[in-house]
Amino acid sequence: MSAHLLVVEDESSIAEVLEYNLRREGFEVDIVKRGDLALASIENRPPDLVILDLMLPGIDGLDVLRELRRARSTRHLPVVVLTAKSEEVDRIVGLELGADDYIPKPFSPREVVLRVKAILRRLDDQGRDQAQLSIGGVFLDPEAHRCTVGGREIALTATEFRLLQILMERRNRVQTRERLLSDVWGYPEDLDTRTVDTHVRRLRSKLGSEAEALETVFGVGYRFRG
């Protein structure tokens, strides 16, 4: 069965380009043009992934993302945000709120397709014959997509979970930002590594008392100590 995508974009020309290219790759695509309608659509028929513009009528994209991450039923739903190049602040805020990735406008439709496929492939692979991990007070169960810290379950997005999983699997070994960008996101190493920094910062905030185990190795990258 093909993946079901929801594109939330109020510019008809952009929405049509996305719909055409995604359908050509075999995806099932729905289009909505307002933030409030996006939330209603997701509640009515949850998609496998959302492509979300940040500048929307009704409710803007950042508020849509906040609602998705607040609700238990959608906190793991993959979200890719679309931003204008001038909206760097909104892009960073989007990542801080839990977006799995961002794509700046103008964009290549082929790039969008590749990034969507990378995220869905990562989710499909996650948990398949993968062992549970435990370091200090952090416990990770890939098959159940479940993480606990000190016995308390914490909510991680799909990308945060994958990032933590790789760092825990490679405990005590430094991972460069470029390597993480390639292994977690599946993207070329020459893309913007600030995406990694933002996700690490968000992950640390969720690890609470275990946050110090996720170390920054200045000038190199990150490692999980244990």
Describe this structure in words.
There is one protein chain. This protein has 226 residues and is an alpha/beta fold. It folds into two domains: 4-125, Rossmann fold (3-Layer(aba) Sandwich); 133-224, Orthogonal Bundle (Arc Repressor Mutant, subunit A), CATH 1.10.10.10. 42% of the residues lie in helices and 22% in strands. It is built from eight helices and twelve strands. It has helices at residues 12-24, 35-44, 61-70, 88-97, 109-125, 158-169, 177-185, 194-207; strands spanning 4-8, 28-32, 49-53, 79-84, 101-105, 133-135, 138-141, 146-149, 152-154, 175-176, 214-217, 221-224. Strands 2-1-3-4-5 form a five-stranded parallel beta sheet, sandwiched between helices. A four-stranded antiparallel beta sheet has the order 6-7-8-9, with helices on one face. The chain has a three-stranded antiparallel beta sheet with strand order 10-12-11. Helix 3 links the parallel strand 3 and strand 4. The longest helix has 17 residues, at 109-125. The N and C termini lie far apart (40 Å).
List strands and helices in order, with pairings:
Blueprint: E1 4-8, H1 12-24, E2 28-32, H2 35-44, E3 49-53, H3 61-70, E4 79-84, H4 88-97, E5 101-105, H5 109-125, E6 133-135, E7 138-141, E8 146-149, E9 152-154, H6 158-169, E10 175-176, H7 177-185, H8 194-207, E11 214-217, E12 221-224
